[in-house]
Design a protein that fits this description.
The protein has 432 residues and is of the alpha+beta class. It has 3 domains: 85 residues, Phosphorylase Kinase, domain 1 (2-Layer Sandwich); 197 residues, Orthogonal Bundle (Transferase(Phosphotransferase), domain 1); 92 residues, Tumour Suppressor Smad4, CATH 2.60.200. β2 and β3 form a beta hairpin. α3 runs antiparallel to α5 and α3 packs antiparallel against α11.
Length: 432
């Protein structure tokens, strides 16, 4: 496959870096992507087709390069290869490692992350977009093609950032990808914004967890010809969530849309409630769409709320089942699953398994799911006893059921016992 640039071509960027074209990686609607090398390090170069190399596109890139990436999860433009307007140009970004996979890879079972890694990926993805939106940007085109994740760790990389624009500013020709665009864009009543991003993000998250589209049930199955009129109705004028509690006309069809039917019941009610909000009231009312922080809060509890059945299957803790006195059962073997003790602090719950980590978010609500402040450990002298070792820089206070208070310094361990509390300083947690 030949591209616009010949292998071995040397290009000099506006910052005077010299890049050598090594290979063509692929092509899309706006241009081609190449593997290029500079000072022994490989990067990706997006080289625009001539008709896409506009002044408006260069202005967008200049701004993005100047302000920098929201966080390391973005394969952000970092250098510009430009000669003059009217001629093709391109931008340099980090090269995606080969171990990162797409959501399409997961749907085709070329990548099979654990529920833990999937929950991590959802959290990291949402946190990245929260940071982007907090900088005043809208992404405009959240879809399959823009997310890659490590199926082992849940780390994510967000690409195709060259269409990111200031929220509410219409300086790009990109309005989104079909099936991911918000209804108000489909029907031509709105331009891309943070609110339309929130809809597209919810669609992508639904795909990640349910392996299907939230609006594609019986109504989609009954369509004989998926032309523009059918698509406008299904995704724009008359969208119906497949699990709308008040409208059952678009339920997933057995034997045709089984992924959604199977996966929907595997997740806690709290996750299903957020998807229901996104695709019922959130369809017509952009202001009532689920915010990034609401998603992140839920994903934090997914990450720390997993245990394993004796058959090895991962099972999510579901608060709604406890309140209804319904047993947790394994989706794989059907056995009843008993959860170990948990630590509840504010809106966070951590299931306390061997080597479980207590992250900063669980006691501060800061959405930091990387900083470890505590680890579940076994008493070396009595293996039947377990505790949480303080790995933070703060002293904790262990509060027994009789009111006795015991300081727990860094490196010391607080015994796990139901009904006992720990004062972390910012919040009081309780073992349940």
């Amino acid at each position: 496959m030949e591209g616009q640039l010949k292998i071995g071509t040397s290009l000099v960027s506006e910052s005077s870096n010299k890049y050598e074209v090594k290979s063509l990686l692929g092509a899309g609607g706006q241009g081609e992507v190449y593997d290029v090398q500079c000072n022994g390090k490989h990067y990706a170069l997006k080289w625009y087709f001539k008709h896409m190399a506009t002044k408006e596109q260069k202005d967008i890139l200049d701004n993005l390069i100047k302000r920098g990436a929201p966080d390391p999860s973005f394969l952000w433009p970092q250098d510009l290869v430009f000669s003059s307007l009217g001629e093709p140009f391109g931008y340099i970004m980090p090269l995606r490692p080969k171990n990162y996979k797409s959501i399409v890879d997961m749907m085709k079972r070329r990548a099979e992350p654990s529920f833990y890694a999937l929950s991590r990926a959802a959290f990291n993805l949402t946190k990245g977009y929260e940071k982007l939106h907090s900088m005043g940007y809208s992404y405009r085109d959240i879809s399959f093609g823009n997310l890659f994740f490590d199926p082992d760790t849940g780390d994510v990389l967000i690409c195709d950032n060259d269409n990111v624009s200031a929220n509410g500013i219409n300086n790009s020709s990109v309005y989104g990808t079909p099936r991911f665009m918000a209804p108000e864009i489909v029907v031509g009543k709105a331009k891309p914004s943070r609110n339309t991003d929130l809809f597209s993000l919810s669609v992508l998250l639904f795909y990640m967890f349910m392996m299907g589209h939230p609006l594609e049930g019986k109504l989609e199955a009954d369509i004989k010809c998926m032309d523009i009129h059918a698509m406008n109705k299904l995704y724009g004028t008359d969208p119906v969530f497949v699990y709308d509690p008040n409208n059952k006309t678009n339920r997933p069809v057995p034997g045709y849309q089984d992924n959604v039917r199977i996966y929907w019941d595997l997740y806690p009610q709290s996750i299903r409630d957020l998807f229901t909000q996104s695709f019922t009231v959130g369809l017509a009312n952009p202001a009532k769409r689920v915010t990034e922080k609401k998603w992140m809060e839920a994903f934090c509890n997914l990450i720390t709320g997993i245990t394993k059945c004796s058959c090895g299957a991962e099972i999510f803790f579901d608060e709604a089942k406890i309140s209804k006195q319904v047993a947790h059962t394994c989706w794989n073997c059907g056995k009843t699953v008993s959860f170990p003790a948990s630590l509840v602090a504010g809106k966070s719950r951590v299931i306390l398994l061997k080597d479980s980590k207590i992250y900063s978010h669980s006691i501060t609500g800061d959405y930091d799911m990387n900083t470890v402040v505590g680890t579940v450990v076994q008493n070396p002298n009595n293996p039947s006893l377990w505790g949480i070792r303080n790995e933070s820089s703060n002293n904790w206070t262990y509060i027994k059921s009789d009111g006795q208070q015991i300081p727990v310094a860094n490196g010391k361990t607080a015994a796990i016992a139901k009904g006992v509390k720990i004062d972390f300083g910012q919040v009081i947690g309780e073992f349940q």
